[in-house]
């Protein structure tokens, strides 16, 4: 970066829910993509899921146990690792992810292209952009690496090795930056991936719990109820079954009462002309419809 570029710090702003819409959590089973024998193909499918989640501003992906004893926990960790890699800005990946077998095909992942993953030349242009930063040191002040050619100082104690988001303003060769709150109305900062160990316990955290199933109410008939749920709850979860079992079968396997788990069960692809719909395809169809509400 040019030597005449100057850095300054701006004050932080308050947070709001983007667009006034509820935050959405997507729930996929631990076994997602475990039926794919090739790591290469699994990586591509997981990357597609990441793109869909980011497209529709999903806040969290939760991987839930779909069999007693969580036999697919290792697979869930693989899914999380690949998605965590994808949601990390490219200029931070080498610092956080050493070469390893599980990320062998990471080069096939599609760019997420969210606003906190800026182009390399973004800082050369006048105006505002956003970027992720890695906290490399923490004390009374924190030092962060934001891919700007030099470390930045934040006048706040931040957890070391955590990732934060910055707003960068460039004007007349001067760069000003400020720390964004975790939830900001200014920009979508990506989704997080979390592994859960109890489907029933996790569902209790949500006011609206939408199950997806080809046996559910056709979305054309359920739209009004979906609208009510989306507009009357701050937190909504959308739950998908496994490749070989629907949510009713999963609930039965886990010893749960299906009818007590969900607010509504919806078929988001009524009159489908294909025998089966892949989970990642159902995810795209479902979120596209919910995004219109």
UniProtKB/TrEMBL annotation:
Gene3D superfamilies: 3.40.1280.10, Nucleic acid-binding proteins. This is RNA-binding protein. Signal peptide: none annotated. Transmembrane segments: none annotated. Residues 1-20 are annotated as: Disordered. It comes from Caldiarchaeum subterraneum. InterPro entries: Alpha/beta_knot_MTases, NA-bd_OB-fold, Put_MeTrfase-C9orf114-like, tRNA_m1G_MTases_N. It holds the Pfam family Methyltrn_RNA_3.
């Amino acid at each position: 970066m040019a030597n005449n570029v100057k850095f300054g710090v701006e004050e932080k702003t308050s947070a709001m829910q983007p667009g006034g819409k509820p935050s959405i959590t997507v729930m996929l089973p631990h076994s997602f993509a475990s039926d794919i024998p090739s790591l290469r193909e699994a990586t591509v499918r997981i990357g597609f899921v990441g793109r869909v989640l980011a497209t529709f501003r999903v806040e969290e992906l939760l991987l839930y146990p779909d069999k007693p004893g969580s036999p697919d926990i290792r697979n869930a960790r693989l899914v999380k690792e690949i998605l965590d890699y994808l949601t990390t800005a490219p200029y931070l990946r080498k610092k956080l992810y050493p070469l390893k077998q599980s990320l062998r095909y990471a080069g096939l992942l599609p760019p997420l292209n969210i606003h906190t993953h800026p182009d390399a030349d973004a800082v050369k242009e006048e105006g505002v952009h956003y970027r992720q930063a890695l906290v490399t040191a923490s004390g009374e002040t924190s030092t962060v690496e934001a891919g700007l050619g030099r470390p930045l100082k934040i006048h706040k104690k931040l957890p070391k090795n955590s990732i934060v988001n910055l707003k960068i303003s460039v004007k007349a060769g001067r760069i000003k930056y400020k720390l964004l709150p975790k939830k900001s109305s200014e920009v979508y900062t990506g989704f997080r991936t979390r592994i859960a160990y109890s489907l029933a316990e996790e569902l209790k955290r949500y006011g609206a719990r939408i199950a997806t199933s080809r046996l559910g109410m056709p979305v054309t008939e359920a739209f009004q109820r979906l609208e009510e749920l989306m507009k009357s709850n701050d937190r909504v979860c959308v739950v998908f079954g496994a490749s070989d079992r629907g949510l009713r079968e999963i609930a039965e396997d886990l010893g749960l009462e299906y009818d007590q788990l969900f607010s509504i069960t919806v078929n988001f692809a009524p009159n489908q002309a294909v025998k089966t719909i892949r989970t990642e395809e159902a995810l795209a169809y479902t979120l596209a419809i919910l995004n219109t509400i």
